[in-house]
Amino acid sequence: MANERLDFVIFGATGFTGRYAVKVAAQLAKEKELKFGVSGRRKQALEAIVKEFAPDIEDVPILIADLKDEESLKQMTAQAKVLVNCCGPYRFYGEPIIKACIATRTHQVDVTGEPQYMETMILKHNKAAEEAGIYIVSACGFDSIPCDLGVIFTQQKFNGEVNSIESYLSFWTTTKVNNAIIHYGTYESAVYGVAHSNELRELRTKLYPEKLPQQLPKLKTRGLIHKSPVSGGWSMIFPGADRSVALRTQRFLYEKYKQRPAQVQTYITYKSLLSVLVTTIFGLIFAVLSKCEFGRNLLLKYPSFFSGGYVSHEGGKPEELQETHFSITFKAEGWSEKLTEPTDKHKIPPNKVMITKVSGDNPAYGATCVMLLLSAITILKESDKIPASGGILSPGAAFSKTSLIEELNKKDIKFEVISSTEK
Hints:
The chain is of the alpha/beta class and 423 residues long. The protein is 44% helix and 22% strand.
């Protein structure tokens, strides 16, 4: 029976992200009186993880499951209300978990930032997830909760009608970091994501046969490199999943609630022009090499060299990761008046600007796992506020009407309004 299941099970608990997830799960389970388990292939390794990261939690069940054994996956997912999947790259390892969750009517959350994987899963499994009455919510980590829910937060606080939102992502450290801070698994996902990015256009044509209504004035992409007073540095287009996830949410809100979809563009900001130029050169080399097998092998064999020292197989040290910080600043433009229909045209140019911000610490792993586990708990506690009976949803689509933003604020992932002005 579903009521006899564990509240959530962390699959891939011995991996780099999985270990952080167990640590956060132990804190949240105690705070919210929840029961969780861990899963993977090796019992001894799982026991060691529980002993190290959840020493104060009594009787954490250990479930053995192997991606090559479909029956073991079903036995694992059948024991959870929500499956927390930390096993990536998801393009290689994610689909068997989704199939098992559908078969056993188990919700699933993960931290993938791989647009091709997410959109392929929608095409292949959304209908089955809807029929099973379960939620599959990807991108529940740094990719892409700060951006996606940041856009939602901005729309909710705007008190009018948003036409466009530009986001500016910044990273910094408060002390000198002497080691790589990104784990190899995250880097590997990026390599294959760039390698297959040319497949996205065909995917999206199948996924979205009908275009959204044209929004005017049209949000124009800024130059390759630009300086904005919003960002306080030099900015370029952010190549991650944030924009695609946020646009999926905007489409969902339009189709579900007839809400005017905001145009979204995402940028990343660096303090100096030199940093932008160096990043651009590394990015071009990365993009070229990822398009052929020989180049991918080079990228994967020498991750530290091709990332400028930011990537290693060991990942960052906890004390150094905790000294890394992020913020995403949002500039929203629109109107103080909200029209009746989303297709109605305003007779005046946008007359309102709002600046908001989302910020936090240790974005790659610490904050990511807080977001991930709180997403799972939100499904457990507030499924009645999720505006669909099931399916594969973006975070913004799933959680826009829940208390997740409020819960993230309590965990020092801050959502705040900086300013609001009318022309």
